[in-house]
Design a protein that fits this description.
This protein is an alpha/beta fold. A hairpin with a 2-residue loop joins strand 31 and strand 32. The radius of gyration is 27 Å and the shape is globular.
Amino acid sequence: MFSRSISLAGVAILAFASVTYGQDAGVSPTVRLPPDPPEAHLGFRPGEDRRVADWGQVTEYAEVLARQSDRVRLDTIGRSTLDRPMLLLTITDPANHARLQEIRATQAKLADPRRIDDRGSREALIESGRLIVLITSAIHPTEVAGTLVPLTLAYRLAAATDTMLRQVLRETVVLIVPSLNPDGVDLVADWYRESIGMPWEGSPPPMLYHHYTGHDNNRDWYSFTQVETRNVVQRVYNIWHPQIVHDIHQQGPYASRYFVPPWTDPIEPNVDPLLVAATNSLGTAIAWDMLRQGKKGVTINAGYDAWSPARAYAHYHGGVRVLSETAGARLATPIEILPGELQNSDPGGGIPTWNDPIPWLGGRWGAGDILGYMEAGALSLLRNASASREAWLANFAAVAERAVAGWPKWPRAWVVPADPGSDASLAELSRILRTAQVEIDVSKGDLIDGDRTWPPGSLVIDMRQPYAAFVQMLLAPQDYPGRLEYPGGPPKAPYDVTAHNLPLFLGLRAMPTRRMPQGEMERQTGTTVPRSRVIEGLSGRPGILVGLYQPWVPATDEGWTRWLFDRYEIPYATLHDQAIRQGDLARRFTSVVLPSVDPSVLDEGWAPGSMPVEFTGGLGTAGVQALRDFVEGGGTLVALGRSASWASDRLGLPVVDRLRGQPNDVFFAPGAQVSLVIDTTTSTGRHMRARTAAWIEGGAAFDLPANSAAVSVATYGARPSVLSGWVHGASALAGASAVVEVPFGSGKVVLFGIDPQQRGLSMATFPLLFNALKPRP
């Protein structure tokens, strides 16, 4: 039976802090044999059905390849959340390996034109520089071919004898991060191997495949909350400054066979137009190549936009992000797809369109097909890009020059005032910006900006610097161009959320200025993670223990909540369905938290027979009764997001969610920041400001009947205000409560219609959640 304790077999090969194999490890022999192919060490040919690799196998083959090839260098770039090594393969011609330090220095100068003396120096750097392409994969390990394609690509490059790939090696330094989530690679491999032959073969594992964030680990590229993200940003992006990032993914099995940009609209307005044009050109060339190779179902400009920076660090650091999405199967188990099952198929029979000119009409689809499409796309990218090396480097330099000159729509600078009580939030803002290599000055005395004065400790960010686009994107509110599916129809859903305003998340003010403020300032250095504030009444207090519900149908909201509790040292224990159904919760816990979970998962979980028996079933009636007994006996139940309406219904609470059952054409909140009015006299609202920004995604809006004992902690206000992003039908929130306390027996229930811990970012509303955990006075 599947065990949650994942084997570390093979990982010890690279278990120390830093290791290098290849160019710097010794003198290479004059004559080399071709390197071993992956199958010689994996024990199977990549692309075979029902075969997956674990991290030990990936690590072993990467080490072998670096030993056998003078084109390959292997480094570790840090440790994962669960202490596995993260790897970086550097692959290029031996002549380039001999001058990697010089190539990195050239990249650093092109990334910051202030370091270049004249135009002639710029052209010389472009002529001598090399194109840097970063390939990342397996961030979502259920996309199992993504674990194998880095190995097959590395082998193809290491063993290449053909003219085109040898040109790639001369003109390009290829950086491959085989997995952005090695912990998940092992979890999925163990799970899948034990599921073969069972009714649930090919199903995803019943737990998050990143320890904290699950699928959301690909939404961390501007906040850097996770160690894996920081490892790659600080030890790859910020050192190498890649011109191109190829992010390899899989999509659903019933979508097109392969997606590559151009993106759909909207594109975040601070992405340089030169990067947009370069992405369009490269993506279209890749699609053309693949179609000429006979690979049907290759689409562009379909489904994926470039609005959210949470997936795109490169867009604000001079590089393009080329996302590829290959249709998946059932992990490594093949499937048969009928034409009518394809989501992108034309009702008339797969009629070609401009962005899907040769549709795939169905058939068998398995691991070999997936790997073949992935490899074809990656090799096409390398061939096309390396053929235009100087154009890519010139484009990279031009983007940096435009940033340093300042865009007309940007302010001259941003000031973030050091308001009372803002120390922790200022430290978090500084951590994020400094991780992204943004230059920040701190005022030593009063700061003068015309008729405005800012206190000592305020942050000043000059918008004439290389990564000013990153600053503007995070500090200015987002005006998402909401649109309808058709005139008079429902709203068109964005690919991801619509807001990412950092000051609103952190409870700060950010003020644009038309001139540089006057006053004594000093440059901020380092990227120190601020100390987490101990939560009064929770951390270290004997007798306080939170039970955090973790369903066996994985919920990213649970993972983010657990991460937050670990960061702030909230004492908690994980609760699964069976533990809640057994009752007697008050013996161990003072409060229980239900993260945002679909009501059907809360009630039923996995159906019998669809998973091993220990992972099936939800809370059911026994779980509801156990929660009722717990609260009536004096416990606190905190229900977030979708779980709030469920708890209200199952416990018969005197509140009504006015949004429940409303169609999207009436109300639709795909992820935005709204204003809340806080009642600071309530136990949950104490120590809060009277007004704050909060995150709403889906959301709930509670009405309290006249005779209700429920207390409104926070409302959306009489005239709801969307501060950043898009909410369709925001007027539906008018006068409703966003957070409610309900006395229940000797205990209380706290319902959240907003997300107080959104992706570990929303510090402004963390206190609401922490206050809610405390026992009823």
